[in-house]
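Bumping with the actual sequence this time:
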Amino acid sequence: MIVREAIKNDMPQVLELIKELAIFENEPNAVEVTVTDLEREGFGENPLFTCFVAVLDDEIVGAALVYFRFSTWKGRTLHLEDLIVKEAHRSKGIGEALYKQVMKFAYERGLKRVAWDVLDWNKGAIKFYERSGANIVKDWRVVHMDEKSLKNYINS
C-alpha cells in the first residue's frame, strides 16, 4: 500500500469513498458533491482542499481530505474534513497511514493545530484518536446552518 497526494483522475474513486462514508454515517442520501466539484475545487488555480489517497493494488482504498483554516487564537490551522477507508479494508493500518500523512503535512508546514469532528457513537475512531494523543473536546458542539436555514434566516 502507498499513501500519496491525490491527482485529479482519482476523484471518481474518492467520490465513491465519500458515498460509502455517508452510508456508514447513516446519511446515504446526503452527498451532493460531484466529481466535477471535486476536480474543480481541488485542482484549480486556487485549490480549496488537499486530498491524500491510500492505494492498494491500483485501487484507492482510503482517502483523507484536508483544508486550511485560520484560528484567531492559533493562526493557520488544518481541518481534517474526512478520513475514509473502504469497509473491506478496515483494521489493516490504512486509516492510521492516512492519519499520519495528514499530521505530517500539518507538522511540516508549522501549523499549530489540526482539528476535525467525530461522531459520538464512533467509539473505535474516538479510541484511536485518543491513543494518538488527540484531545476530544467535550464542551464544544459542532454547529451547521444548511442552505434552507440560511435562506430562511436571511429572509426573516
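The C-alpha cells above came from a reply further down the thread. The chain has a mean pLDDT of 96.
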